[in-house]
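Structure in, sequence out. Go:
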């Protein structure tokens, strides 16, 4: 089979990244399974095209920026304007932002927005390990950019937008256990709604957002319900205060690892084509010209 300029196998004439070619007889694909397989193979081809990696990295940067803008912004705006933002509003707003980000650009990068999620997808073999460092770097950068923007505009220290254990009433270890449990639930929801028969497509965004809101409503008093090393990193970096930050790295990663193990017990290894598509996105930015040689 001839190759295109990027070294990838050229698609059959008339095929696009989102539509398989017709059968040899000129008719439609033989079954929905054939269509799904052809679509997945096209998605894999696009994902392996490293010339598009900058789009995925930018998507993760922007998505994490928007998440932290809302998550850290609630605490900082509450400090600037006392008695205007309730705890309920502060924990529900990030959930709504996550849902919006998943819906409007989840198909570009998978909308991980969270180092623990990227690690979980890689552990489940739905996402290549060599892509994980890049995703984590831009997630941290997006979080830091959001915290810097908030501190500059709201004129309040980013300290008020971070997460800290509720000491001295609760220890750092108690906060660690809370973050582990909350992240276990979050990653379980993410992996579960993107696995084989449980895959519910974009509606999965509603499940993820609902869990984030619920976890924040009951779990935030002890640890802040971060569930995301990047979300806490941004404000800590800009405020130069990393007190207790280990809780928000170790807890979410431990919870993610436990969630992957649980997913293996429930469904076996990997999330199938649906899991890979959810983890990697489906960036169909290039369509083969059927008239090209």
């Amino acid at each position: 089979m001839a190759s295109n300029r990027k070294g990838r196998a050229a698609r059959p004439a008339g095929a696009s990244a989102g539509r398989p070619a017709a059968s040899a007889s000129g008719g439609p694909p033989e079954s929905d399974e054939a269509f799904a397989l052809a679509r997945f193979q096209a998605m894999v081809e696009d994902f392996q095209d490293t010339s598009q990696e900058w789009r995925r990295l930018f998507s993760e940067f922007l998505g994490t920026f928007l998440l932290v803008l809302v998550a850290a912004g609630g605490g900082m705006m509450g400090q600037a304007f006392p008695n205007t933002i309730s705890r309920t509003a502060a924990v529900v707003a990030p959930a709504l932002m996550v849902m919006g980000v998943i819906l409007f650009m989840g198909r570009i990068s998978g909308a991980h927005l969270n180092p623990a999620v990227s690690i979980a997808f890689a552990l489940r073999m739905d996402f290549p390990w060599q892509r994980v460092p890049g995703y984590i770097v831009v997630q941290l950068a997006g979080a830091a950019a959001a915290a810097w923007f908030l501190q500059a505009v709201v004129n309040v220290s980013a300290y008020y937008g971070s997460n800290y254990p509720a000491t001295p009433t609760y220890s750092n270890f108690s906060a660690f256990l809370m973050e582990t449990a909350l992240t276990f639930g979050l990653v379980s929801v993410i992996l579960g709604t993107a696995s084989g028969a449980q895959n519910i497509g974009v509606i999965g965004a509603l499940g993820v957002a609902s869990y984030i809101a619920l976890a924040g409503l009951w779990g935030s008093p002890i640890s802040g319900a971060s569930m995301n090393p990047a979300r806490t990193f941004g404000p800590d970096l800009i405020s130069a205060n990393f007190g207790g930050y280990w809780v928000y790295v170790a807890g979410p990663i431990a919870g993610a690892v436990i969630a992957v193990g649980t997913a293996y017990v429930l469904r076996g290894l990997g999330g199938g084509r649906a899991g890979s598509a959810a983890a990697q996105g489906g960036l169909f930015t290039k369509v083969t010209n059927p008239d090209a040689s």
